[in-house]
Amino acid sequence: MKYVILIVGDESKYPTDDAESEAWMNEIVAWYDKWTQAGKIVDDGAELDSPTKAKTIRSTGVTDGPYIEAKEAIGGFSTLETDTIEEAVEIASGWPGVSNGLITIEVRPVLER
Predict the structure, then answer these.
(1) What is the pLDDT of residues 41-50, one digit of tens each?
(2) Residue 96 contacts by C-beta under 8 Å, 6 or more apart in sequence?
């Protein structure tokens, strides 16, 4: 079954130092490499630009910025293919930044109709 992992965080807490940012990106690349080689990554996913550059569409019109006033926003996503949601959660929990509270991951089943 396919599961989308939504990578959520507060970009104001992300590393700003070039060396720290590069180290974090290297951890993310290593995570993708590990799970791609294991056959669990369905796609390469995508990193999303800042929510401050978003446009939100509502019945009242189009506004700038994120849908709600929140510090955390979806920063990217990827799709896993696993036998169970528990396996998807186990894989996603290894995303760099989860263990120290920098990132939150939402694992959601993909509906196949």
Answers:
(1) 998 788 888 8
(2) 24, 27, 28, 31, 103
Q: What is the rounded CA–CA span in Å between residue 10 and residue 70?
A: 9
Element housing 2 (H / E): strand 2-9
Q: What is the reported pTM? A: 0.84
Burial class (CB in 10 A: 0-12, 13-18, 19+), 19: exposed
Pairing of strands 61-64, 2-9: unpaired
- CATH class entry, domain 2-109: alpha beta
Taking the C-alpha atoms of residue 113 and residue 110, their distance in angstroms, rounded to an integer, is 10
Pairing of strands 2-9, 103-109: antiparallel
Give backbone dihedrals phi and psi of 53, rounded to 5 degrees, phi first: -100, 5
